[in-house]
Each structure stands twice: as structure tokens, then as C-alpha cells.
Amino acid sequence: MSHKKRLGTNSSENGDYLQACLEVDPLNWTFDENTPRDAENEGQDEATQSKQRKTEDRKDVALEQQDVFPADVSILETFLPVPCVSKTVQATSNELKKQLLGADNKTGGIIIIDDPFSFLVDEIILSIFKLLPHSSLTRCVQVCHRWKQLGYDDLLWREVNLDGKHINCAGVLGSILHRGVRVVRLSKAEILAPICVNDCNVSSENSLFSCGTFSLTHLDASMTKFGADNLACLLFRCNSLKFLSLEGCKMGIREITAISYNHGLEVLNLALSIGLTSSAIDVVTRKCLKLKSLNLSWTNQTRDSVRYICRCKELQELNLSGLRGGINRKVMEMLVTSCSKLTALDFSDVTLQIGTMKLVADNCAFLQKLSISRCSDVKPEQLLELLKLPELSHLNLFGFVNSDALDRFTKARPGLYINKGVFSPIARPISTATYEGRLWEQYSGFII
């Protein structure tokens, strides 16, 4: 059933309004001439109006931000906290924008935010870096270009400890030593890769220093395993060495030649070295005349080597333990008269002829330490000759079985230390049984 009523207008106190009748058929709204035009907005959805208001509010905020930072507002919002983008900083907006974007616009629109380290001078940053171990320093150089430049300063790489390291990548050791390293410990390490990426041909003397030299003054490579020609390449690039230890290393003519280029060498430890001949000692003693400490123990040397050692007039410490064939009176006289500054002498396991102790007592006035352990040819009465030495303080007589002679000698020379030093420290980088972080009294740093 359909009920229809015609649309009409009624008047009231509030004004004209629409009057409609609900009917079953679809509604058809019509407006008469008295209907106001603003009534069209009254039928809009309330949610749509709220959305429009939010859009207008965003436009107002964007205009406010544009007044403070006219360019690249989105980029600035990424780096600045929210309180910075407000009307309270309008007075300093131009100065802040210059600090962030750069007054000369050379950064190409890239924001540069200064870190606290940028306000420190290089000397202070170097002082901070110096407190870090090398393992942390290698990470710091990856931060930025400035840190890389400061992190590779030679002041931070004076001492490097690579004890027991296994290096099988070409150029790694060379890149470290080229940073101005002075003291390096390579004991018990394995250097299987080339020292530098472009290693020179060590067989040619014209190309010995073509790849640059290192600044090493202290090198400890005791018991180190080197690949083919790696030791020669390392030594050829060192011409300022003063302390060198190659204990237990394999030696050849090229290695010996490289050692002889270090004319200022003072301490040389070649104990237990393999392949060391008398001719090699001849080459070294011809050019390294400033040697003060030399260790040739158990290197299969003969008395001919002792004659070459007599060239070193400044020699103060000498270890010739295990000398083959022993030493006769003539060679001993040549040694003690040429090297009259000796303070430490080790002839353990060496055959000594009669009269050698008297030669030592008459010519070595500065001798403080003497080792003649297991020298069975020394007679008990010959020990009394050593009472003439005024500076003698340590005497090693391991294997000397005549206790009566020792008792008489001890009573005649009270205060003398007998058999107190099992380990011979002559020319060795570590003078004690345990490693205390020092090589020849120089700090070698922590292991990288």
C-alpha cells in the first residue's frame, strides 16, 4: 500500500525548513525556491569534514616550518630533534642552517653534523689513541679519513707485538712495518707470505732497497718460521737495526749479507741458528764493528770464528757455548787482548787448555760474569786464578764435581754468586725466564 504526500513548506519561528514524507518508493528530494543554498553542506558526512580539517592543519604546520627552514625540511627533520623545528629558533635559523648545510654549499646538500672529536686538536686525539691496544686501533682507522690519518701515525706504532702470529697473506707484515715501527716481536711466528705485495728480487744488489726500507731498530724473530726468501726480504729492508735476534732461524749467504748492511748493530743473537758458517761470521764482523753483545752458542762454530770475532773491539758480552774443537791458549790470548772490555763470557761445554783461566784473569779486568759449566779440563787449582778479577760477581760451574775446591774458592771470595744463573741472557731479547713485555729493556706492546 502506498501513501504519498506532496512535499511542501511550513513556516516556524526558526525559519523555513524542508518537510518530507516517508514513502515506500525511493525517496526523491526536491527543493523549493525558499530553501537556503548553505543547506547543501549540512548533508556531508561528519568524518569527511574532520579529515579536511586535519589536512588544513598539516598545511599550516608545513608553512610554519617553511618559515624557519625554507629548504629541505624533510632532510633537516631527519637529523634534528623535534624541539629544534619550532618558532623559538626563528632568530637563529639562518646561522643554524649555515652550520648544517655549509655557508658555501660545497657539500651539495649533505648534512654535516660535527662529533665531539672534531673540536679536539690532533695531539689530544693521538694521546687518546695511544692508550688503545693495536687491535682496537685497527678498528678506529675505519671510522673516517681523519681517524685513519691519525690512527696510522708512527707515534702509535713504535712497538708492535706479533708473537706467535700466523701470517699467510701477502703484504700484511709490510703494511704494518711501514707505519714507522721501531720495536717488533715476531718470536715463534709463521711468516709464510711475502713481506710486501711487490717483493723485490733479493738476489740482485741493485734492487735491495727499491721497495723502501723499514725503520726497525729492535727485531726479535727467535724461533720464527719464514717462507722462502722472506727473512732475506725483511732484513734487506732494515738498515737501522741495533738489536737483532734470529735464534733458531735458518741462515744463508743472503741473510748474512743483509745483516751486514746494519753497520750500527750492537746486539746480535744467532744462538742455535742453522747453516751458520765461519765465512758468515767473517762477513758480519767486517762491517758490524760496533757489536757489544754477541751470542754464537751451539752454531757449530770452530776456533776460526774466534779470530774473526777479535775485530770487534767494543765487544762486552760473548757466548761461545758448544764451540767445536775447543779453544787453545793462542786463540784465547788473541781474544782477551783484543776484546779487553768484556764483562760477560760464556765458555760452557768448551774444551779449555791449561793456562786459559790465567789469561782471562790477567786481561779481563772488567769481567763480571763467567760461565765455564761442564768444562772438565779446568783443574780445581785453576779457579784460584780467578780471585784476581776485582769485578767478578757471578760464576757458573755446573757439572764441577770437586766440592772441596769450591769450598776453598767460596771462602777465599765471599759474596760471589755461584751457579745462580741457569739461563744465559747474553744478547737474548728476554733476560729472564718469563716475558715481561720488554725486549732488550724496550717495551714491545700487547699482542695484536
Give the overall pLDDT as a whole number.
78
Instruction: Write down the overall geometry.
Output: elongated
Number of helices: 14
Computed CA radius of gyration, to the nearest angstrom? 44 Å
Structural class by secondary-structure content:
alpha/beta
Beta content comes to 5-15%
- Helix share of residues? 25-40%
Largest sheet: 11 strands, parallel
Distance between the termini: 100 Å
Number of β-strand runs: 18
Spans with pLDDT under 50 lasting ≥5 residues? Answer: 1-24, 38-42, 63-92, 200-208
- Spatial strand sequence of the major β-sheet: 3-5-7-9-10-11-12-13-14-15-16
Offer a concise description of the structure:
With 448 residues, the chain is of the alpha/beta class.
